[in-house]
Amino acid sequence: MSRTVTRAINIRSAACLAFALCTITTAVNLQAPLYDALAARDSLGVGATSIAFACYVVGIIPVLLGLNGLADRVGRKPLIMTALLLCLLATSITLIAPGLLALGVARFLLGISTGLTSAVAPAYMQMLLGGQDKRVATNYVTASTALGFGLGAAVTSLFVFHTPSVSPPSLWIYLATASLALVAVTTLKDRAPSATKSPMLRLPSYPQGAFSYGLAILLAWALVGLVIAILPSALSQHGLSAWSGFATFGICSCGVLFQPWARRLAPRSVYPTGVGDSADCLWVDRLGRYSRQPCGGAAGYGGCQQRLLWVYLFRGIKRRVGACGYLG
């Protein structure tokens, strides 16, 4: 087989995996514009919504810590397929029984799905690309997952604008899209599981000098979660709840636009720049509150700046850590 044909097959396989990764992360915030409506349906407030939102963390942390060696035992493709099946199940639950309880269960399943994906996505992408530079595989994973985190919320907002509902057509469209992604993943090649049983528990390790970057990313993700959790309720106070999906898209996906520029910056210079932008976003949000303007808009801008911070920091550690996922 010629090198050109092999390269074309590798690119097609990488595109299929990128489509699957985007589909998996699309499910994470697919219901974000519905949070306020679901809370009102159950006569609950933003506190209950935040708890349901936080169930995502309850699902992802045990998987990242306790099942990190699973890919060596069963392969990488089964984990991606399992993640897609969990996304299908989570979305189906919110369609069958819309409410905050169903949302909490769905978020828990989505956390497991994301945890399984993040454990294998960068290395799997690199294998499908034929062992190219790790940065190429990382860029594929980063772009596809970043786009997905905001895409689902934006599509849901489009339908909520037209016809407000707790079960908009975007959920049905997602089920069809995820099914297509599942079929695409079945066509991908995979390495045979390792003959030796690897330990399932793998605690995270930080290369020398990388801990501060990891801490900054932790704070950045905490800011993103805080904004997304309270955004629908904040916007509903101004009659703008339908816009929460677009704001979430800005929070989660705008960093993709800055990646080509951020990659040109020196790793040591992007860290203080990103931290400064994170502080700016909090100042803008506070300014919006004092001026009695819709604080969700300011929070959306702040989230965009936060996402830019993530890109800055990601650029700063990428050369030290290698292929790491954009799947927080």
UniProtKB/TrEMBL annotation:
Q: Which SUPFAM superfamilies match?
A: MFS general substrate transporter
InterPro entries in the cross-refs: MFS (IPR011701), MFS_dom (IPR020846), MFS_trans_sf (IPR036259)
Q: The organism sits in which domain of life?
A: Bacteria
In the UniProt record, the signal sequence range is none
Residue ranges of every copy of the Major facilitator superfamily (MFS) profile domain listed in the record? 1-328
Q: Which UniProt keywords apply?
A: Membrane, Transmembrane, Transmembrane helix
Q: Which PROSITE patterns match?
A: MFS
Membrane-spanning segments: 46-67, 79-102, 108-125, 137-159, 171-189, 210-234, 240-258
Q: Which PANTHER family match?
A: MFS TRANSPORTER, TRANSPORTER MFS SUPERFAMILY
Q: Can you name this protein?
A: Major facilitator superfamily (MFS) profile domain-containing protein
